[in-house]
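FORM 7B: Structural annotation worksheet

SECTION A. Query
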Amino acid sequence: MARDPNLHARRKNMVLSFYKKLDSVYEHGVKKHTTIWCIHETAEKFFLAPKTVEGYVYGG
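SECTION B. Predicted structure
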């Protein structure tokens, strides 16, 4: 079965936007969550492996 590139791009953008939203939270001028925690929470929300989310975040 061939992968739909448009669907994959939309899903990747959805995952990245959720990650960036978590990662951008500041409380009292300090970043509220660690990067690893954000990756973990994103992976749990979208039923992905943390390595997959890391690939999206760092792989572009």
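SECTION C. Observations
The chain has three helices and two strands. The chain has a mean pLDDT of 91.

SECTION D. Sign-off
Analyst initials: ____
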